[in-house]
Amino acid sequence: MEINIRRINTNDVAALSAIARKTFYDTFTGTCTEQDMHDFLEENYSEAELSKQLQDDETYCFFAEVEGVPVAYLQVKEDYTNFPEVKKWKALELKRIYVLSQYQGKGVAQKLMDFFLSFAAEKKYEAVWLGVWEHNMRAQRFYEKYGFADSGYTHDFPIGSTPQTDKWLWKFL
C-alpha cells in the first residue's frame, strides 16, 4: 500500500472536518456524554474552525493518502501556550495525529510520525512534544517507540463537562 503525504489547504476543509470528526469520535466515544462529544466536535472540528486554523501560517496540516483518499492527518505548530516549560527550547508541538480505524496497524501512523520528525529536524527544532490522553495506552506505546518520554507534566483536556487529563510527552532532537 502506497501512502503519500501532502499539505492540506483551504480547499480540503470539508475532507479535513470529516476525517477529524470521525477519528476523534472513534477514539474518544464512550469517555464522555454524547452531548459533550457533539459539542466538542462542533467547537473544534467544524469547517469554520478548521478553516481558521488552515489560514494560520504557523499551523501545518498534512493528509496521509492512500490512492488519493485521505486516511489520516497530522497537525503541528510551534505553540508554547499550554506547555510553557518547553519554551526553554525551540520546540514543535504535534497537536493532532489521527488515523481512520480501518487503516490503523498498516503503517500510516508510522509514515506520518517519520514525516513529522523529519519536518522538525529540517526546521531545526530542538525538541518535539505532544499531549496524549492518560488512558490511551496504545498511543503511549506508539510514541515511546519513537523515543518520546513522559515529561512529568500533565494538563486538563476536558471534553465538555467531562474531565480528562493528558500527559505531556517530549523528545529531544
Summary of the model, kept short:
With 173 residues, the protein is α+β, with helices and mostly antiparallel strands. The chain has five helices and seven strands.
Please give the CATH architecture.
3-Layer(aba) Sandwich
Overall tally of structural domains: 1
In sequence order, what are the helices and strands, one letter per element?
EHHHEEEHEHEE
Q: Using the coordinates above, name the CATH class.
A: Alpha Beta
Q: What is the overall number of helices?
A: 5
Explain this structure.
There is one protein chain. The protein is of the alpha+beta class and 173 residues long. The chain has a single domain, classed as Aminopeptidase. The protein is 35% helix and 31% strand. The chain has helices at 13-28, 34-45, 47-54, 108-122, 137-145, and strands at 3-7, 59-66, 69-77, 91-99, 127-133, 149-156, 165-172. It has a seven-stranded mixed sheet, with helices on both faces. The radius of gyration is 15 Å and the shape is globular.
Give the SSE layout.
Blueprint: E1 3-7, H1 13-28, H2 34-45, H3 47-54, E2 59-66, E3 69-77, E4 91-99, H4 108-122, E5 127-133, H5 137-145, E6 149-156, E7 165-172
Parallel strand pairs: 4-5
Antiparallel strand pairs: 1-2, 2-3, 3-4, 5-7, 6-7
Helix pairs in contact: 1-3
